[in-house]
From TrEMBL:
Cell compartments where the protein resides: Cytoplasm
One GO process term, biological-process aspect: cell surface receptor signaling pathway
Top-rank lineage group of the source organism: Eukaryota
GO CC annotation terms, alphabetical: cytosol; trans-Golgi network transport vesicle
GO molecular function: CD4 receptor binding
Gene field: SPG21
Family statement drawn from the similarity comment of this UniProt entry: Belongs to the AB hydrolase superfamily.
Record's keyword terms, sorted: Cytoplasm
Span of domain AB hydrolase-1: 85-161
Residue ranges of coiled coil: none
Keyword Cytoplasm attributed: yes
Entry protein name: Maspardin
Amino acid sequence: MEEIKVSPDYNWFRSTVPLKRIIVDDDDSKVWSLYDAGPKSIRCPIIFLPPVSGTAEVFFQQVLALTGWGYRVISLHYPVYWDLMEFCDGFRKLLDHLQLDKIHLFGASLGGFLAQKFAEYTHKSPRVHSLVLCNSFSDTSIFNQTWTSNSFWLMPAFLLKKIILGNFSKGPVDSKMADAIDFMVDRLESLGQNELASRLTLNCQNSYVEPHKIKDVAVTIIDVFDQSALSLEAKEEMYKLYPNARRAHLKTGGNFPYLCRSAEVNLYIQIHLRQFHGTRYSAIDPSMVSAEELEVQGLSRNQDSEDSQ
């Protein structure tokens, strides 16, 4: 079974895309780590926010594919924030530092929740032009952990990891999904107690998205039909919250489809971003548009033929 960590694609990503570290808060310990790839002339890139267990590396396949088609892509690893408003304020400062007025956000699980909260936080002076929400949620109460969210900071790292690993798939999975889980476990091991405790706190402290504040934001919801950490009720709630959202369903993919079903996820991201081609909010180099259109049409045809089999 080929591991992602030793795959040629991952090694190519690590050797060609530099990891940048940026401090935007008064607190020097709050370091944002990010991969910024693709044409810097693009002022409205797509930014990726990872789940509780993830780092900026988990989106390496999206970074490689989308930059190859001419998009500017930024994948983030956020510092320790214990409060949603504090996170939103730090993220706004990061965008100011990067001189980005508006962005597209792709968020997985907690990353998707943070993306929605940031869009809500900046609704009076909008910074988020569109959202792609993958296996995400809109209300933390679905985890039934709001009562423990104040005590995560006291727990040792091994216990926090055990809580997170409890949401990983346990049944039989195909080799690609098994590789994705192995990779995410490896990423989880790289996170310290502070990072784990703060992310679980953000994930579980009592909060929900107020949809009327972000009704003008274009949304695509990506979810899977097989087993994932999200309940059917949580998915239905997302559909109700965003009745006009585009829906992209994957037959399988588990918790981490961006790793084990990357071609399909990348296609859905491209289809989402195509609606902004030719506008000031385009995330792609204009000279690459026609080639990318042909690529998407070819991929869509392949996907349709696979789905009909």
